[in-house]
UniProtKB/TrEMBL annotation:
It comes from Quercus lobata. Keywords: DNA-binding, Nucleus, Transcription, Transcription regulation. Residues 1-20 are annotated as: Disordered. InterPro entries: WRKY_dom, WRKY_dom_sf, WRKY_plant. The keyword DNA-binding applies. GO terms for molecular function: DNA-binding transcription factor activity; sequence-specific DNA binding. PROSITE patterns: WRKY. Residues 95-160 form the WRKY domain. This is WRKY domain-containing protein. GO terms for cellular component: nucleus. It is found in: Nucleus.
Amino acid sequence: MENYSTYFSSSSSTPPTSSLTLSMADSHAYNEFQGIKSNGFLGLMSEMGGVPAVSNIDVPQSRSFMVGSETDVNSGKKKGEKKIRKPRYAFQTRSQVDILDDGYRWRKYGQKAVKNNKFPRSYYRCTHQGCNVKKQVQRLTKDEGIVVTTYEGMHSHPIEKSTDNFEHILSQMQIYTS
DNA sequence: CGACTTTGACCTGCGC
DNA sequence: GCGCAGGTCAAAGTCG
């Protein structure tokens, strides 16, 4: 059935062609991985929020991960208000399905065709009240088996349902990254 | 009937 | 200023 293998990849740069050439210079995020299960996946993200700078991880077997691509969230809204940029976390997952069940409930609010990509990008928002987390899901043109998921923001609530699937993903991640 | 998806329109930022 | 691309809104449709 599902056949996930987890990639982590840079999000904001050009689509990864073959492999990313980032080194494990800073292993902050790396270490944080070990704490994933306690808080759920976005708990991990929140842990990573403590890492100020961009830290990229890549390991030879094509897993890569990027933290810290930042994005405007409040731009264009209230004038005079300082632009607040939420960190974005993108990662690639090799999967037959676009939607990875990470245990949170998401409502789709948009879909756009993306330039240089024959697959559309889908936009989701967390349906939990007061939770402003968004994610984008996109399949790579160059490798249809790879789904790029970009999370934006951090969940302020616990995971909503048990996620055997995701546990599986996480376990793979930990195998790969340790 | 509520929650969610679909989809075209609209808004904004950016490069030329 | 214009056009393009990315991101969001919201009305209508679908589903359980």
